[in-house]
């Protein structure tokens, strides 16, 4: 116990010294940690560093010096454009995860410890020279006894203990930092650390990556242009992962001179991405050039499944609605969708949010779809949501980051390719289940989007009212002589809202059925909607007549 305390104190000194060395001494002073460094402490009264690119670069260098845990923290932050400004994300993307290799004897020991059998009984051959050596794992090429070429990812010895020790210190530092920072935004240091804790433990358990790879292998079956390496379950555990070996050229290194059709490669990359988004609901969260190989025949292979994103059907549909609303330059629907998919930290005026979105969309007025950098636009919208204190789910943030990476790859491979044109058919297929996409550029689609949004937003808004009631934030200013009738009026309003939503649903359904050629069913649905509207109007008039008219109350308005 005492030895562990000395180790933690020594590690805290290392972290504090790195912070002081790279210009973050002001934070040490605020967290009351200057004394940890003794005579090496930075002078008191240092100003806080500005959040510019040079500060971000120093922060990246500091994380790299502090080792695997901090490198992984930087990588997590680089995948979350909703947490940090874009120039910080760009800097943290430069973090190098390479580490000196571990000797093959230790690697063999780790394999045997994890799989419980001698290496000779598991593999016919194991290459002693690693293909790659990173902060958490080392990768070796091997051959199974069936003659299959595989890669074996082995967790570095004692890395878990080192990470657990660093995590405990990071949790303490996050708590201190949160206590002394006046404004931390909607993402607090302790909140970020909790997410990092979950993420790093998932990454340390290779069975999670095995499940991700298996799921993507199964959903990609039948797509001849896409290769996902197969997991060898009998040769894998929580510290060892064995997959098929795939040989190819990094997508950043392919050239036409080498016999590749760059346009077709780019189309395959886009098609794989859109199919994963709109058909599978499972997408690669870190598609940097090192994780995409190009194979003969312009096929592509995806590697490294430690970070994947999952979208539910509702999230997929919200994404499509967002894309269509952007294409229609409809800031009202964009604001509504972002407000619905996110979690507002406070009650922000939707009007201001909508106007800020209009400003962003106006930048793209007059541009053709192929001239719009869709990934940049998506990131701008997410940044705006954060500024309005709307917490965006991690899946969308990972998607925004992955989209920027994919778009950069496409622009380098074949700049003339219209990304939206290639991807639009997949979005339309998903949209077809709810709307008729044939008039996606016209008035009917805009109206349907608003009807759909109304039906989905009312329950959310009612839930917000309940949250306000529970939190004591809901206030009603009443100036009426008929307080006893408020309950009746509320009940009448609830009936009208219910009838309105039902009529809206029948209207949407009727229009979709009519568009598909089923005139009778569509007419019946629209007729039922009309009957409901008439009934609602009659009910409203009846409730009005039942109220006593007070001239004095009317004059007081």
TrEMBL record:
Please list every transmembrane segment annotated in the UniProt record, as residue ranges: 493-514, 520-542
Domain (ABC1 atypical kinase-like): give its ranges: 94-337
The name on file for this protein is: ABC-1 domain protein
Question: Source organism's superkingdom?
Answer: Bacteria
PANTHER family registered for this protein in UniProt: CHAPERONE-ACTIVITY OF BC1 COMPLEX CABC1 -RELATED, PROTEIN ACTIVITY OF BC1 COMPLEX KINASE 7, CHLOROPLASTIC
Q: Which UniProt keywords apply?
A: Membrane, Transmembrane, Transmembrane helix
The leader peptide range reads none
Q: Which family does it belong to?
A: Belongs to the protein kinase superfamily. ADCK protein kinase family.
